[in-house]
Amino acid sequence: MATTSNRVDGTAATATSATTTTQVTGAGRTIIDDQVVAKVAGIAARDVPGVYALGGNAARAFGAIRDAIGSTALGQGVRVEVGETQVAVDLTIVVDYPTPMMEVASAVRAAVTNAVTELVGLQVTEVNVAINDVNIPALDGTSDDVDGRLR
């Protein structure tokens, strides 16, 4: 197991194992798995106009296979480092052409920060966005769906 320096809470995280966030109150204990935090961030990022997909080429290929068999990975393209009270999020996205990429990245940061803060209750220290591709609808034959977003 490789131990890496964590970007949150000044703690260390193990790179190969899933961790959880635990809150203990007088009424009981709440445990939130890191994969849940990644899913919340992924859902928030997908909802931003101009985001075509999440993940790199290999992740999207595996995602297409999962979708074909009826299983969706909502945390695809999302990596989180969770501490006791804070989280750092890394996202890899594909942007629709001709959407301004910096505006999409800013909107993704805001959406992910709001979703994780409101739904999970953790402070977001950073949201890093890597744009690794551009979807050009004319080249892949996609068309507008009912809400006007390209697919």
Layout: helices, strands, pairs:
Layout: E1 3-5, E2 12-14, E3 20-25, E4 28-33, H1 34-46, E5 51-54, H2 57-68, E6 78-82, E7 86-96, H3 101-120, E8 123-135, H4 137-140
Parallel strand pairs: 7-8
Antiparallel strand pairs: 1-2, 3-4, 5-7, 6-7
Helix pairs in contact: 1-3
Give the structure's gist in a few sentences.
This protein is of the alpha+beta class and 151 residues long. The chain has helices spanning 34-46, 57-68, 101-120, 137-140; strands spanning 3-5, 12-14, 20-25, 28-33, 51-54, 78-82, 86-96, 123-135.
Along the chain, the helix and strand elements come as EEEEHEHEEHEH
Intertermini distance: 39 Å
> What Rg is obtained from the alpha carbons, in whole angstroms?
17 Å
If helices are DSSP runs of H or I spanning 4 or more residues, what is the number of helices? 4
Question: What this model shows, in words?
Answer:
It is a single chain. The chain is an alpha+beta fold and 151 residues long. The chain has a domain at 34-135: Cation efflux protein, cytoplasmic domain (Alpha-Beta Plaits, 2-Layer Sandwich), CATH 3.30.70. The chain is built from four helices and eight strands, in the order ββββαβαββαβα. The protein has helices at residues 34-46, 57-68, 101-120, 137-140, and strands at 3-5, 12-14, 20-25, 28-33, 51-54, 78-82, 86-96, 123-135. Helix 1 crosses helix 3 (101-120). Mean pLDDT is 80; it is low at 12-17.
